[in-house]
Every structure is written in structure tokens, then in C-alpha cells.
Queue: 4 jobs
Job 1
Amino acid sequence: MTWTPLSGRAQEIALEVLLAGPLTRLELADRLDLSAGSLTRLTKPLLAEGFLIERDEPVGNGQRMGRPQRPLDVPASAFHFVGVKVTSSRLFGVVTTLKAEIVHATDVAIDSKDPGHIVAGIAALVRDLTRQVGHVEAVGVTVGGEVRDRRTVVFSHILGWRHVPLADLIAEATGLPTVVDNDITGLTESESWFGEGRGLEQFALVTIGAGIGYSYVVRRHQVSLTDAGLGAASHLPLDPTGPVCRLGHRGCALAWLSSGSIAGTVSTALGRTVTYQQALDLAEQHDPAAARIVGDSARQLGVLLGMVASLTMPEAVLLGGEGVRLATVGKHEMEEGITKYRDPQASAIDIRLRPSDFTEWARGAAVVAIQDRVLGRV
Ligand SMILES: [Zn+2]
């Protein structure tokens, strides 16, 4: 069976069960403001066609209905989606269920940023992942950069691309419906639909790693800007004593917080090349140079988080990205930075660290494909 996009109330019901289920009929009727009769009438065809299932285990004591209720759910593991995150050196792929649960993950090195080479690599990865589950519904791909209409990479600094019709190229190579989006957008949607953002009225997401990402979600709607792919938070000024970014800003967020910049500054201090993770290891081992540099960057991360909280006043700030270990190694300094420009009376910021290796980014790519299918966009 293929997940055919639904419309109207049927789509609303399936979406609510997908995002919040399993739910009893009573809970579902309450959430969607439907009468019990309407809900029964509307769910009947969805159950008959296999979009919804009844779970065996009853929930609640059923007092309101006089008997226990069998909750409704979606048959998540009957539908699979592939997500691929493209970085400058590797492709990270996952195959997930309709609820974005990862069934299998894999990654492969790429030795050229040529679009043709990367498309061939993605197609091979999609074939590999499809074999794990038999059939996939659609493919989602995310890249760092600006993506238009979920199809064309307009600009990607890390890949050196301009106007690459990536979705069409991958669809042609795989024969599968394909959608492409910005990587922060994908990760944000993943948190919003299936992650820490579930149940939050509004939240902000900050990512650190090769780049700096920021996004803001209100009632499941990501606030999107035309220039979102450029990384609006990357060049916010944090402290003018910092390193210089590629655009020549001294002490912007990218200069202070990107993994390349931190690794480079530690390498310069030590007179030998170290990776980002090695720089953090050295800081943990109290190497004086690494500890100073990592601590200073962690403090600036705190300043950035304080700014985000002060400007958008989210219920929670999720902190992710492949460089998120900075927040653990430099926890003390980060906390200093958070309060540095906040009123002492201001309430504490609810900061939630997210598991953010590249598999999470790939899951975000799968979520973009899931959303397009469920909302009827592919
Ligand atoms: Zn900058």
C-alpha cells in the first residue's frame, strides 16, 4: 500500500493521529472539536483503507464511554521514507517509518562536490536503503544552503553550487518522488513534528557545527524567510575580540562558534592541526590553550542563546547540530554567557540539548519527504 495524500477533515484526523497518537476517539474528537458521531463517521473509511489502525491495548478506564477504548494510531511501519543529508565530504542516509523512526542508517564518503557525482552517490544510497525495507514512498534530501520551492539549490556555500535542480536530478536517477530543502529547515520540522518540539506552543532551534543555524516555530509553523538558507544568525555580532569569519566580521557567531573556526584557533595555538573533537577533548583534559579557546567560545554560545531567548521569548530553546558537544564541555562558561546580558530578574531559559549527529540531520531530510506526502505536496 502507498500513502495517498488525504484532504480536508480526513487529512486533519490522520495528521493529528500521526503527530499525537495513539489517541482514543474521545481524545481525538476533543482535539479536533468534532462530535463523537462525526468522528466515527470520518474515521470509518480511514480504518477501512488502512490509513488508521486500532491498537490492541486499551487506554484509560473508559469511564466517560462506559468501556475501555482502543486507541487509534497510524500504521507507521507500513510506510517508509529515505532521508539524505549532503555535507561537503559525506552523504548521510536513513530510511524511516511514517513516524520518522529510523529503521536503518548508513553513510558514504564523496570525493567530489560535482552535482552529477553527488546525485549518483545519493541514488546509490537510496537503492541501498530501499533494499532494507522493500519499498519507499519518497526521498527527502537536505543541504546547507538556500533551496527554492523544495526543488532547486539556489546557492550553497559548502558545496560551491548555484542553481542546481537537485530534486529533478535525483527523481530522474531514482524514479522516486523527491523533495529537497535546507538542512536547518529539515531538522526543525523533525523536532516540530516528531521531536522535542511536540507539545510546545513555540520554540527556537539553534544549531552549531560547520555553520550556525537558527529557526523559530509557532504552533507547528516554522517562520520562514526568503534568506533562511543563508543562515540569518550566522553573522550576529557576539564579541569583537573573536576570530574573523569568511565575510570579514570579527567576533560574529560563525567566527566564534563554527567547528572549523574553533579547531583552527586551537590548531594555531598548539602549532599542530587538531580536529574539532580533538580540540574539545584537549579542553576537557585541561590543556591550557584548548580550555581557554573552547571556554571563550562556549561563553559566546551562551550570549547567542540569551539573545535568542530575549528576542523571540520561546518556551524552550533546542540546541543541536553536530558541534553541540561544546555546550557540554563548556557548560559552566555557556551558563555565564547566557546570563551576561540578561536582567538578573529574568526567568531561566529552558535550554534542551538535542542528540545531533549527522543521522539526526538525515532524519530531518526524511521528515521533509514525510510532510510533503502527508500534506499532499508530492
Ligand atoms: Zn561573520
Job 2
Amino acid sequence: MNKKVLLINPSQFQSYTNVKIKGGAIYSPSLTLAVLAAPLVKAGHNVRILDLNKEPDLDSVLKTFSPDFVGITFTTLLFEEARRICRMIKSYSKDIIIISGGAHSTALPTETLKELDIDIAVIGEGDFSLLKIINGENTDTIPGITCKKDGEIKINPCGDYIEDLDSLPLPAWDLINISQYKTTPLLSRASPAGWIETSRGCPYTCGYCTKNIFGTKFRFKSVNRVIEEIEHMLKLGFKELHIADDNFTMDTARAKQICEEILRRNLKFPWATVTGIRIDRVDKELLELMYKAGCYRVYFGIESGDQTILNKIKKGISLNKIREVVEMSKNTGLEVFGFFMAALPGETEDSIKKTIAFAKSLPLDMAKMSITVPLPGTALFKELDKGGFIKTYDWSKYNLYVPARDVYQHPTVSWDIVEKYFNRFYREFYFRPGYMLNFAKKNLIRKDFFSMVKILLETKW
Ligand code: B12
């Protein structure tokens, strides 16, 4: 029997409260919910996607749509927002079955079920487990879900990861009014920009990264499937695409074939690797192909300017290699964005100084530094928790833009030092006369130049 399913994307305001460059936060249509909706729509269920970043009035949607099921996605940072939403839904009707999923539910399913007014927490990939729940299959038989049974919490062991990603239906973007989304000019050339997922999983073991959703095996969509998804998104009105993969260029040959097929089909659209690619998973030929195929900016996870720290977090890259690849990317014509982290394991005043100096020494177009927060489900969280360094499990304090003095005691550096150099990083990187001149020269031709300047002027440096 067809069910009415409401999929909710919570307001991300909580996550970005203290973000340095306010205008740098991305508010795009939710890839997660478009992906989860697709198998449900294909099975004939009546699905609605509600993005509270765009339509905050949950109450009226509950009244007009009166769903049988609600699915909610949230990161750890949005836990309190999820709590508020679930409480609202249950106070509207106790009969609505609430299902949670995503990074936090996967890391702490039992706690999530205990703490929130939800009925089921899905662990890992939810594409088919959600469908089974909505189809009314016996919850005892559905792998990777946690639910309440006779007052007890029952966890069903996870099944295998989805091996054939081409078997997933195309994301149900048509359930979202994408025209209401405007992507910040700092992180886009055209708007609206949309997220595309071409692979899942990453074999690398960076300690601060959440691996428990998609695991360590690199699984990927075929070149034809990726192109089919690109054409689908462009036809629906997306003007730019952002790669959402953990490790898009893990298989450099596949990445090259994707670029070659974009060129062969003469698809013209700007795109960028916004969630970061690895320095050691690109080469000159691939970078040139990416640039020719419309990629205008590559984002690299650089993290630190201190080799000891990079080794300690098992990043597996060298400072020399970083410089070589950043320069190679620039020579190709690509813009380069560097991600850095403060307060990584082993951090000292000296190492954070090195990171700032290193960031300024590279020909980067933009850079972002976030604070290392031990997120549940990561090796770093386990290590700090075991060592007694974690101070609170109040997830609302887990924010990546403020020194995490309330979250944990850092074993090697004080939060005053981190705060001092975190602010210094942005001032010293962006307020270099040469950099500002270059930024102006490069962007003066852009029609949204002044809105970019407005964003930077509104930033509390
Ligand atoms: C792309 C991305 C973003 C995009 C958002 C894309 C989107 N989904 O709309 C942007 C740039 C906006 C973003 C922002 C942030 N992100 Co982010 N992001 C990612 C990334 C790289 C891919 C996520 C994605 O879209 N994957 C594709 C979709 C299809 O997969 P999915 O979302 O995981 O959903 C699947 C399952 O998780 C599950 N599922 C998820 N939700 C639900 C809900 C239900 C009901 C069910 C049944 C199943 C289910 O089923 C889905 C299909 O299999 C992940 C890394 C990762 N490996 O997951 C990090 C990740 C989710 N982000 C993370 C973080 C911390 C953030 C930020 C806080 C970082 C920051 N700098 O501020 C912000 C804040 C945003 C927020 N919501 O709080 C962490 C979350 C960890 C945690 N414990 O919460 C991750 C896991 C990165 C990491 N490696 O640690 N992110």
C-alpha cells in the first residue's frame, strides 16, 4: 500500500553559527534526501522533501501532507535541531513513524534512539533499508536498523554495502524546487549548484574522518551512469555541479574517462570538487582533462603545514608533494582551494604557525581552516574518549568554527593558542596586499564581484 513519506533536511543554521566567512556556507538542495526519495518514488510511495532551510513551517506541512512516515537526516552538529523537530512531529501525532539516518545515527544508533523521539535509527546506507521499512517489511529482518521492541532497543546487524551503485535510481531532484536555491558566489560560478555523488567509500584512514557510513572500499558508478546523472541534473536546471564524493579521484583512470566523456558529449557546465580530493590521487593529465571538461576549481585536503602532524593523522602526503601538486594545478589554469585544520592531534604553537606560513607560501586562491572536533564514530573520538579527554556529549557544542574548549581537553595545545592562531590564519591569509590585488584582478570581471566583496566585508576577521 502506498505510504506518505516526508523527508526532512533540518536547518543548518546551528552548524554554521560561528563560521568565519558567513557567505561561505553552502545551502544547496539536499543530495541525501533526493537519493533516499528515489527508490521510494519508484516503488509508488507518495514522497515529499522538506528543506527547513528554505521552508521553515513544519507545522503546516504536517497538517497539509499528514505523513505516515518521516525520515530525518542530520549530522552531529544538528542533533539538537533534530531533537526539536522530532518532538514537534510526535506532539502533532504519535502515530507518525520517525526514522533517522546519516552520520550521527550511524555512529551512535542506540543513543540516538534513546535520546530522540524517533522509532527507528538507520545505520549506514539507507537507500534500500528505508524502502523496506516503508514497504512494511518485518523490522526484525531489515539489516542495519535499530528500533524499540517491547521497550528494548534492538540493533539488526548491517548488511553488505551496495556493490552496484548503478543500481540506484537517479536522485529524485524533481521533488525539490531547485530554483529557490542561490549558491554563494564565493563557492560557485553559476547558480543553482547541485551535489553529485559518483562514488562511495575511501580506503584512507585520516583519524578525524567518519568512515562508518560508506566504509573503506572505494565503490563507484560507471562513467555512463555518471554522465547520465549529469545530463539529468542539467536538464532539471542545475547550472553548476559540486562533487560530493569522499574521494572522487581515487581511481584516476575513471576520473579521466568521466572528463573525456563530458568533452565527447560536449557538455558545458562549471564544476568543482567542493568536498576535497587527495593531493596524491591526481596527475598532470587528469588536472588538464578536468580543466578542459569545465572544472574551474579543485579543493585539496591539505590539513597541516607540519609533516609530523600529517604523519600522525595518517594523511599519507608530504609537504613537498602538496606544493608540487598545488603548483601543477595552478599551471593547468585551475583555481585551488586549500582545507586546513587547527588543533589536530600533536598540534603545538609551533606547528600551527607552520601551517599558517605554509598556507601563505602556496599559490592558493582560497583557504579555509576549521577546528578539529572529535566527531562520534571517528578514530579520533574513540582515542580521546578512551584517554578521558572528552568533556561533554552535548552535541550542540560540537562546532567546527569555535575552539572546542567545552568539548575536549587538547592533549598538546591550549585553546587560547588555537583561538589566537585560528583568527590569525584568516587575517594573515586574506589580508595580504598581493593576495587582495590578485583576488580583485581575477574577480573584477565577474558580475557578482561586489556581492563577493560584500560577503568579505561582513566577515568578522
Ligand atoms: C557533501 C557533504 C556535505 C555537503 C552537504 C551535502 C548534502 N548532503 O546536502 C555540505 C558541504 C553542505 C556539508 C556540510 C557539512 N558537513 Co558534510 N559531508 C558531505 C559528504 C562529503 C558527503 C555527504 C553526501 O551527500 N553523501 C551522499 C549521500 C547520498 O549520502 P549520505 O548523506 O551519507 O546519506 C546516506 C546515508 O548516510 C543514509 N542516510 C543519511 N541520512 C539519512 C536519513 C534517513 C531517514 C535514512 C533512512 C538514511 C539516511 O542513507 C543515505 C543513502 O545511503 C560527507 C562525507 C560522507 N562520507 O558521508 C560529509 C559529512 C556528512 N559532513 C560532515 C560535517 C561535519 C559537515 C559540516 C558540519 C562541516 C563543516 N565544515 O561545517 C557541515 C555542516 C552541515 C550540517 N548539515 O551540519 C561529517 C558529519 C560527521 C558527523 N558525525 O556529523 C561528514 C560525515 C564528513 C566526515 N567525513 O566526517 N557536507
Job 3
Amino acid sequence: MFDLPVLNITETALHDNEQGSPVFDMLDMPNAPITRATRKLYVETYGCAMNVSDSEIVMGVMHKSGYVMTDKPDDADVILLNTCAIRDGAERKIHERLKHLKFYKRKRRDLVIGILGCMAERMRDELITEKQIVDLVVGPDEYRALPQLIAKAYEGEKGIAVKLSRVETYDDIVPLRTEGISAWISVSRGCDKFCTFCVVPFTRGRERSRSLQLIVDEAKQLWDSGFKEITLLGQNVNSYHDDASNQDFADLLARTARAVPQMRIRYSTSHPYDMSDKLIETMAEHDNVCKYVHLPVQSGSDRVLEAMNRHYTIAHYIERMQKIKDVMPQCALSTDIIVGFPTETEEEHQMTMALMQEVRYDGAFMFKYSPREKTKAWKMGDDVSEEVKTRRLSEIIEQQHQISHEINQTTIGTIERVLVEGLSRRDSTAWQGRTDSNKRTMFTHITNAGELNAEGKTAGYVVGDTVTVRIQRATSATLIGEIVLNS
Ligand code: SF4
């Protein structure tokens, strides 16, 4: 999960989108008869995009068993928290949330509360014994068992299902997606890399890939149902391999790009070890594959990378970055950085700063090292003090903001193609969307959407359209521009 884009997804983000309407529109799912007994399910998702995608699978499984979704916890018969265990802070959030949920349980004795995801897998029966209000603990590979476990919980039997699978990919489950223009498609599950700081191999098991044909079919279905953009997801998406057809991730990307030529295709997250020339060239060959690569480096020191068991050197990493820039000069780059890994010296911290200066990322996800039980790094102790971690993190963030700001200044005066996502959260007179290179862009229109402009022409665009924007200003995080008419 370290590698996947950590979206600051809390329940609010998922449960009241900008329009404030219930977010669940049951796409391509047979309508379950709404009977007196129809039970309502409320799902809260924490952590990374893989968990968002898993929550859609969970809702798909539950809907097939006759549940309907609700976006209000006090309206629910079943509340499921899909949790993250990547850092201590992520788990503390769940403990806090369970304190709130006590209120609902007191109000409704028959309310069923379940913990899903990586924290469920990591803490297992501890959650049941420690937390009276928890009725179910279900790991990422056991979601098919949810309807039965919930039925037993109604009879007063607490349930725990945390077996990790070497084969489970939920290939036949149709995720229940919220309406929108961007969708996640998980193409593989688990991870075999065993980075010494990471819990993912212990909470999500061994790597396994879905069938290439079913992924391509799913992309076509999503296009037909109005989605404009997909992100192919995996802990290590570029180590994807379809054994049946002996095809790798570059093949999957090319097949998907050809199958839905109008659709924007993104993928996340890659590992430097598996970033092949074939993948880089495949990206360049297909216009609808977005020119944005998220490639976590974690540290600028070979000694620290070895202690992290990352399987590459800085020389290899820089060579891969140079290859991407040579083949796709316009490609935007981002990364993950961990500061304060056990035994990291001040000199090695400066190496990380120097690497970020050399690569000049468009953006980065930057974290303090958080010791996790069961991981190899746990045994190394946590010898970098909190104070030093905080100082190193703020130095890295400050430097990255400066670099992002400088890079975004170079877009002023240029023309960008932006996928319209909706009205800006910050300025209701502006719209927002993202460029092909994944830069958030706010843009105004000389007329409000739908109104006629001076030439008697309408704005003529809606959410999901791709429009042309001339960039006028930029911050380290956002480009601001104006729409170029009739483009
Ligand atoms: S073990 Fe390493 S490669 Fe795998 S998910 Fe964790 S950080 Fe990513």
C-alpha cells in the first residue's frame, strides 16, 4: 500500500460528494427486490486506492446478497470499516472511529459492525477480544464470506475470517462503483517484494494477477457506462503477469489502450525493479495512456535501499528515470519518500534531498518512517528520533514544494487538455479537472456553463468532457487557466 497513491480518503470524501447526493448508483447490477427485510449497508473506506477498489468489490458482493447501500451510518443495519495498517496513525484513526460507533450500537442492539482490510488482517482476533462492539473481522481475501458471516452475527455469533489466498482475485465479482468519470480497476493483488518497512505482504498476501481478457472487458463496460478514465491498480502493477496468455503489464496496457481508444488510462503503482523499456515504449506508443509515472524511490542512499530490501540501486533508478524522460519528455513524475528509516544518517538524508533535486519530480508523497510489527525493519529498532524525523520531513517537503512550483511555472502560456471533473471546491465560479500529466487544473470560462457567449456560442462542455485550457498562473499544486473556445 506504501506504493499506491495514498488518497486522503475518509468517509466524508466517499459519502458526500460535491453534489451532496447519495453516491451509490448501482451500475450494471440486477435490482435486488426492496423488501421489508432488505438490509442497509454503510461502508467507510480508509487508506489507498486499493481499499477504494476493494470497497466496491465488498458492495458488489453484498448487493448480490440483497443489501442496499446507504450513505448514513444511523440508517444502516450493517456498518463496515475498510481499514489501513500502513502507519500507526492510520490504525489510531480506526480506534477513534470505533469509539463514535459505540453510540450507534447503544441505539441499535442488532446493528452489525465489521472491520475489513489490512488492519483486520494484521490485528485479527485481537480486534474482537479488545473491542466489544466489533462483530466481524474480515481480511482482504475473504470478502466472499461476508454475507454468511453477517447472517451468523445476527444470531449473535462473532465472526473472523483472515485467511490469505494465493489465488483469490475476485475476477468474477462486479464491483459496485459510484457514478462518476474515473474508475479503478484492480489488476493484481498482494505483493512479493517484502520491503522491510511494509506490512502489505503480510496483510494482502502473495502477488496474483487477474485474467487479462476480463480486465479489457471491464474497461470496455466502463466506457460504455460513461466512465472517461480508468486507473489500473496493483501494489506492484508493473509486475502483473497473465499466466494463461503469458502476457505482462505492457501487453495489458497496450490491449486496454486499443480496446478503449477514447478513454484515458492511468496505472499505479510501479516498482523501479519492474519498470521495463517495453512498458515505457508502450506508454509512448498510445496517446490515451496518460504521460504520468508514479515511481517510489523511498531513499537516495543505496545502503538504506538495501536495508529496505528495495531490489534496486540509485544508479538503476536514475537510469530508468532518464529512459522515461528520453522517450516521453513531457511525462510527469512523482514518487514516495520515507524519512528517518532506522540507521538513516544525516548524510544519507542529504543524499535523498540531492536525488530529488536531480530528478525534479512534479510531486511526491513524503512520510516519516513508522515502525510496523511483523516487518523486518521492526527488529532494527527506531533509532532516528521523532524530532529529527520531523526536521528531515519538513526539509524534504519544503524543497519539493519549491521544485513543484518551479516546474508548474513552466506551464504558464501553454495549452493543456483537461478532463472536466466538476466545479472547483474552492471557487464555485471555476471548474476543475486534471491534465494528462495528472496536474489538478482550475479553469474559468468567460461564460457560465450552458450560457451563450459573445459569439452566441455555448460553453458546450460538461463533466467528463476533455477541454483545452490556456494556463495563466500556477502554484506548487494547481494550474489555473482559461478555456480556449471551440478547441
Ligand atoms: S512490500 Fe514494497 S513493493 Fe510491496 S507494497 Fe510494500 S512497499 Fe510496495
Job 4
Amino acid sequence: MKTKGLTKNKVNIVTLGCSKNLVDSEELYTQLKANRFRVTHESGKDDANIVIVNTCGFIDNAKQESIDTILRYAGAKENGLIDKLYVTGCLSHRYRDELEQEIPTVDAYFGTNELPRLLKTLKADYKHELVGERLLTTPAHFAYLKISEGCDRPCSFCAIPLMRGGHVSKPMERVLAEAKSFAQRGTKELILIAQDLTYYGLDLYRKRNLAELLDRLADTEGIEWIRLQYAYPAGFPLEVLDVIRERPRLCKYLDMPLQHGSSSVLKLMRRGITREKTEGLIQTIRERVPGIALRTTLIAGHPGETEADFEEMYQFVAQSRFDRLGVFSYSHEENTHAFTYEDRIPAEVKQERVDAIMALQETISAELNQKKIGQTFKVLFDRKEGGYFVGRTEFDSPEVDNEVLVSAAHASVRPGDFARVTITDATEFDLYGELAG
Ligand code: SF4
């Protein structure tokens, strides 16, 4: 049934979840464009006759958000507001059978590695020559660069290997070609992502090869910042630190999810590292790369976590003084190792623990930010919002970290510009400043 006001062969892609999922949506977007589809990404306009929802299936909240989004578009289809609805990504990969039963309005469900089949369903061809030529949905000046897919780690709580499979490194030449292509199109910042960056090369080159990859990426003309997200602590390749210290294009920034601060819970989580070893690694990182910003992620409420374990994690956060930190409530995920444990900690207690850690981090972040007043930083501007130009220092990743706000009344910069900014004020999560002379 042709619905009034809809544009034929126009696809709206809706992405949920993490930056790795966003890269998948961008690859789909690029392929559809090359097949002469009109494509939008998360367009507010509702004239697309085809909607593709790229879902997240990581933890409870994310799964619920994905289901709500599918149901919203299923309702739109039942009301004739769209013609076709397709669902792909992690939730679809993990729960396809259940979803086909429960939401049959969806025309078809696809897994995380089924781009060619999805394209075929839309009567489009998968164009191999486009690999590495990805169009961006982020502002043109920064791009996520996925260097591997999947994960071989046994973390007890994690369902990602169920949805993304085992670790597969992207050949180094392909990563370098993708970086060069972005640089030629004006990208200035590359954010390296994977399930576990530090595993890079173990499958393909029989050795951890992240340091060599970074060193070669740092030769990419036009790229000014290269940032690392999702490093794993156990077996961390220390030579990476030397590249970060010696190559100016490498941001002095490292995101390393640590998940907990108590050795007994780290053991239950099968993280392959103790609190003492973790603290040793943090010290080594800070010694080898003076001034580096450390971001981490923690989980509160994992089965077996006692009050004393939580207190230990709280002290670990107080002592480690991370520059950036996020904390999640443990989510009891089917088919994970932790699903064999009993999830006895009440949801409200998990939430109390999350809130306590975040309140502590807020104080730490406020103290660290106060020390930045009077200092001058190189800032990459992302957008104009309200009366401010909003940007980031090399110590901040988009969407998750602090921002620098410069009054638009006294400055004129464009998104994608770098400028030196002197900090004049600070809150717990943001900095305010003026363009330096
Ligand atoms: S490293 Fe652990 S937490 Fe991260 S994706 Fe792999 S299994 Fe999951």
C-alpha cells in the first residue's frame, strides 16, 4: 500500500547503543547511498517509506529502549505511516526468534553480520569497493574507526561475544586506508574503537600490534588527534604508552573499562586481573605518559559483591581519582557466565551503589576541573549551542566526557576548528573559557 506523502525508496536509519553500532549504521548508509537510495540517519522528518532500526542488546535498559523503538515504528507501519520496517543489530542478533514471534509487524530481522542480506532484501547490491569509504553521520571533523569486531574475553557479565562473535582484527592496511580516506575528506580526529583495542593483531599477526598500528596511523597527514577507547587492563601492551607519549597526534587520553575495584569481585567477573595489578597498571600509565587523562567504567551489584567489596571499590575510586568515570548497575543477562550465579542484590541497592560512586566522582571531577582554571588548552569545536561554542580538549571524547564552553558573544569559531582556549571557570563536568590571544 503506497502511503500518502512518503518518498519512495527513502530509508531512515535509526541507531541505538554504542559507537560500534553507529559505524555499522554508517556502513549501511554508505551502501544504500551507492545504490541510489535516499538515506537519512535519525531524521526527524517522517517521509521515509522504509525504516531500519539498528538495535542494542547489551543490558536491560538498552534492550528496553530498542524494543520501545521497534514498537514505535511497528505502530507507525500499522497506521500506514511507513511501508517497510527492518530491524538489525545486537538485540535482533540475540533474540531474533522471540522478536519474530512477539513483533511480527517487522518485515525482517537481521543479525550483526548480515549487511549483504539486508541489502539484498532491499534489492540493493553489496558494493565491496566501498569498504573503507564510509560516509559519516558524526560531524565531519571526527570519525569513529573500528579496528576489530567481536571479543574473545570471558567476562562473566557480558553478552557482547554472543552478539558480535569472537575477536577479528581488521587488516592494518585497511585501517590505514580508512584513516587516509577520512583525512582526505577533512576529518581531524579519529576515535579508535573495538570491544577490546588491546587484543588487536593477536589473531591476524600472532602478536599484540596496537602500538605499531598507532605509530603508523600517527603518520596520517591531516589527522590531528587519535584517541583510544575500550582498552582492556589484563595483558595491556605497555609499548602503546610510549607511542602515546612520543607521537603528538595521539591524545593523552585512555579509556580503559576496569569494571570493579575489589579483587574478589574481579575474580567472579573473570577479568583476569587483581586490584593490586590494576593499581600497578594505573601507576605505570601515569608515569609513562605524564598528564594522561584516564576514563573508566565500573559495574555495581555484580552477583557475589558484598558490602565490603563495594566499600573497597568506593575506596579504589577515591584513591585512583579517574579523570572520567561511568558506572552501571549489574544486569543479569541470559547465557552469560554470571547468569549461573544468583542475582540476589536488590535493584534499589544496586542503584544506591551506582549513585554513591557517581556522587564521589562528581566531587573528584569538580576538584580536577578547578585546577584547570587559568590554564590554556587546544580545543576542537563541535557545535554552537545556545550562546556558546562547545568543544573538547584532547582529554575529552565526544558525547561521554567534559566539554569546553566559549561564549559566542566574544568569539567566532566554526565546528571543526581548533583554537587555544584559556579556562576562566569550571563546574563538575564542564569548563568555561575565552579564546587565548
Ligand atoms: S572485554 Fe569483556 S566486557 Fe568487553 S566486550 Fe569483551 S567480554 Fe564484554
